[in-house]
Specification:
The protein is built from three helices and 22 strands. The protein has 311 residues and is mostly beta strands.
């Protein structure tokens, strides 16, 4: 029972946004910040729209390819942006995986790391040679807070969660140099420098404090009804971290804008570099972000939109 609760929580965290934020007539509580975002640093230009065969719950991009995990199909699909072709990249025919909760790609794109529901066992897939291996954790941060060796009150360890606690209130973003832990519910971002084995932290511009996100229910913990999602997804490139935030800044309040903004931070020092807004699409929320070169990719359920991002 506890395992099933965790699986649903990990895979469908974005679904809460659909049901809780964008359902008509159900305007949720929102965090309001005194800051005003700066929008004159970045420009978006729509390149194309791609349709995947189901809602994309995990998305990654590398080179000319976009990879999307569709839970309903139990498969990872690959779209090549040059050939404009969609094919099945990984499914049960290669290896039966009950669920994939996280995907990471090696720097040379030769190895794909597929995390199971516990995120403690990883399937390593090398598509060029059709080779499969498995490993435990490896060089990736996982949801066990003790692995971070970082004392911070914003990282809550809920020992009755089978996962150890971290993934119950945040998610990970990985790039070539750093790994980030980004909370759903507060502004404290943790950055792990892999080469130096050092941990740092910085605050997003909204400065949202930690709130009570879980309450004891019998022998396990359940999500608190007081929890308000502020960061829903993120991506990174060599220079910047891009965080999709639902915090209402003063400029949004004054203009009546109720949608999210992408806040950009310098990947080295954590300083705020500006913001931009993603265009609406069929009244669907953005579930995932990916960045590849000068292209920003956003998953609106099963529709993937590619944008040229310039500054």
């Amino acid at each position: 029972m506890k395992k099933n609760l965790w699986i649903l929580s990990a895979l469908f965290c974005s679904a809460f946004i659909i049901m809780y934020i964008l359902v008509r007539g159900a305007e949720p509580d929102r965090i309001v910040s005194d800051v005003s975002r700066v929008y004159d640093h970045y420009q978006l230009k729509t390149l194309d729209t791609i349709v995947f065969p189901g809602r994309v719950s995990i998305m990654r991009a590398a080179g000319d390819n976009i990879y999307g995990y569709v839970y309903s199909q139990k498969a990872i699909f690959r779209y090549n942006t040059l050939q404009h072709q969609l094919d099945t990249f990984f499914n049960d025919g290669i290896k039966a995986l009950p669920i994939v909760t996280r995907i990471e790609i090696s720097d040379d794109s030769k190895a794909f790391y597929l995390f199971d529901e516990t995120q403690e066992h990883i399937t390593v897939y090398q598509p060029s040679v059709k080779k499969l291996d498995s490993l435990r954790i490896g060089g990736f941060l996982t949801r066990h807070g003790t692995q971070l060796h970082f004392k911070d009150s914003t990282i809550q360890e809920f020992t009755h969660f089978e996962d150890g606690g971290l993934s119950a209130d945040g998610f990970f973003v990985n790039d070539a140099r750093y790994q980030f832990y980004i909370p759903f519910y507060n502004s404290g971002i943790v950055k792990y420098d892999v080469s130096k084995n050092a941990v740092f932290s910085f605050q997003t511009i909204d400065q949202s404090p930690p709130i009570n996100i879980a309450v004891p229910t019998g022998n396990i913990y359940a999500r608190s009804p007081k929890a308000i999602i502020i960061n829903s997804t993120a991506t990174a490139d060599a220079n910047h971290l891009y965080v999709l935030s639902y915090v209402l800044s003063q400029d949004a309040i004054q203009s009546g804008y109720r949608g999210p903004a992408v806040d950009v931070y310098n990947i080295n020092n954590g300083k705020y570099a500006g913001s931009f807004r993603l265009p609406g699409f069929q009244n669907k929320p953005v579930l995932q972000l990916a960045k590849c070169g000068d292209t920003l990719i956003a998953a609106y359920e099963r529709n993937i939109l590619r944008f040229k991002l310039s500054d």
